[in-house]
Amino acid sequence: MHAIAVKQGETRPELIDIERPEPDEGEVLVKTLRVGIDGTDFEVLSGSHDAFPEGSDYQILGHEAVGVVESPNGTALNEGDIVVPTVRRPANTPSRFFENNEPDMAPPGEYVERGISGAHGYMSEYFTTPASFLVSLPESLADVGFLVEPISNAEKALELAQRSRSTFEWQDSAGLVLGNGPLGLLTLAMLADQCERTYCLGRRERPDPTIDIIEELGATYINSQQTAVDEIPTVYEPMDLVFEATGHAKHAFSTIEALDANGVGVLLGIPDDWEFSVNGGALHRQLVLQNKALLGSVNSNIRHYQRARDTLAEYPDWFLPSIMTTQCPVSEFADAFEDTPDTIKSYVDFRV
Amino acid sequence: MHAIAVKQGETRPELIDIERPEPDEGEVLVKTLRVGIDGTDFEVLSGSHDAFPEGSDYQILGHEAVGVVESPNGTALNEGDIVVPTVRRPANTPSRFFENNEPDMAPPGEYVERGISGAHGYMSEYFTTPASFLVSLPESLADVGFLVEPISNAEKALELAQRSRSTFEWQDSAGLVLGNGPLGLLTLAMLADQCERTYCLGRRERPDPTIDIIEELGATYINSQQTAVDEIPTVYEPMDLVFEATGHAKHAFSTIEALDANGVGVLLGIPDDWEFSVNGGALHRQLVLQNKALLGSVNSNIRHYQRARDTLAEYPDWFLPSIMTTQCPVSEFADAFEDTPDTIKSYVDFRV
């Protein structure tokens, strides 16, 4: 079968031919429908994760997938079920987090990540996985189901934020998303029901399709070239909830200044080392005197995938087609890794 | 009656003579027993809060008090009840936080703080306050009740920390307190029941009475001149829970590095502006990839005072006498504001 992989020492994806996998006991054979591409895939290509599956000189890409059960193999699933696989799998070490269904909380060393580090991804015609790592979707979500994975990260972040504010009567009236990439837009659309007023920060100038989408969602676009994150409270309003989805390390700190009293910022980006100066005294003082919170959040577990499925079903009809800009059949997979001004979300379609 | 106050333009406390206050409807008249002194009192003396009670050219000091009800004035309290007053009172503005019994979450402008900013404190022979801002104590805690206020801050911080980690099965095996002042020691003693292993960081060399107390509590003393906060994971172990009680702004950031995966740091100190350099990329990345959390926490509400009362009752017998080093009668109040190498906690005793 065909698979899209990066070979050891290479930085570009290739189409390879490998044997179709056989499911072990408890595993399901899934026929792949669509696999999305995000920034992490480019990190894998650049070698920054640098942990190929054991004994393999290539890494199959892809961690945002949707497929259809080809062989339930004695599990509770049925042939034809639409399913989304989660990303993390246990490494060869005992982990209480996997035992508790909390792979997202496992520390480095206790997990591998399919398509990212230590395990093959889902960009192949078929894949196998234990049934316990699959979330079922209604048939109607088969086309968009590969977005469950990115949305699940926003769901986890929202859960963490809400729980951290559950000691008092928190009002999340104003919500801000830093970043207008696919994760930013999916998060913003999720927040539309949550917050009375929503904002999304990006670096692009008009005309730009993401700005149109932001405004169509009823949110206010903030151009970071005109308004720095720490100026947002005076130019717009202080925020109750901030999601950072830029990976820009200065945003982790200016998020504190963007927050209203009692606000919470959740960080999702993964920056490289970067030394810079901050007014650490002012940030520390603001955190304390205004009861602010800053939370890091990575990946997600099956509970967040399930919520993401529900969120996905509730997005307005026009929204998902507007961000799913770049569909590539397997034969033209390389195009899915190209960026153009109109690209929002690219995905490989294994059905065509 | 006598009161200990700072006059406008002065930076030293004085004994003044003022009229005994009359309780309004719903207010109680309390005879003061003891009032503790902490770092905030020195900030008030230095003028950094700079908001004297309206129409007053002096500010009565003191926010850590215990007293005995002199006149219940028709409230549910009884003459002779031992009581501790909370700190925050509503400013002349509507506040949903006071309506919700959450004065600790009120933003600046919605509150005054007795003895700190905008309202007189408790360092007088009598004070009045609405009964709803009083917590009752058993007679047996009358001598130590002024410590309920500082402990209540640790209780709130612990509640915030626990709630922020309640989305998964968190293990708070290792707890670290930054700071070996009275708040640090009271927090450490509270954590002794909470964490399997506790640590306390200070700047002092042996012999020092706080180090003896730390070790008597079963905790490990960490000398910050030998081990920086960010080195603690390698020299000792990574921490599940960190309480920052130093007000040293660099500690807010190195706390992130002291934490284990999924750990939480709560900041309690209130530093001045201080610009310095951080590896913001590494801190941001650690927060995200290891699900770390950083929470600011200020003051406390009646629920936390009630918990503090319970904690106070459960401390080992030797502990409180060992930190209550400096008792001063009103006539020698000035001594309570002096610092010596053996001073841990000073308080003014209004009974003697």
TrEMBL record, chains A, B:
Residues 142-350 form the Glucose dehydrogenase C-terminal domain. It catalyses: D-glucose + NAD(+) = D-glucono-1,5-lactone + NADH + H(+); D-glucose + NADP(+) = D-glucono-1,5-lactone + NADPH + H(+). GO terms for molecular function: D-glucose binding; glucose 1-dehydrogenase (NAD+) activity; glucose 1-dehydrogenase (NADP+) activity; NAD+ binding; NADP+ binding; zinc ion binding. Keywords: Carbohydrate metabolism, Metal-binding, NAD, NADP, Nucleotide-binding, Oxidoreductase, Zinc. Its EC number is 1.1.1.47. Pfam families: ADH_N, Glu_dehyd_C. Substrate binds at T40, E113, E149, N153, N299. It comes from the Archaea. Residues 25-139 form the Alcohol dehydrogenase-like N-terminal domain. GO terms for biological process: non-phosphorylated glucose catabolic process. NADP(+) binds at N180, G181, P182, L183, R203, R204, L268, G269, I270, S297, V298, N299. Its cofactor is Zn(2+). Catalyzes the NAD(P)(+)-dependent oxidation of D-glucose to D-gluconate via gluconolactone. Can utilize both NAD(+) and NADP(+) as electron acceptor. Is involved in the degradation of glucose through a modified Entner-Doudoroff pathway. Belongs to the zinc-containing alcohol dehydrogenase family. Glucose 1-dehydrogenase subfamily. This is Glucose 1-dehydrogenase. It comes from Haloarcula vallismortis ATCC 29715. The lineage of its organism: Archaea, Methanobacteriati, Methanobacteriota, Stenosarchaea group, Halobacteria.
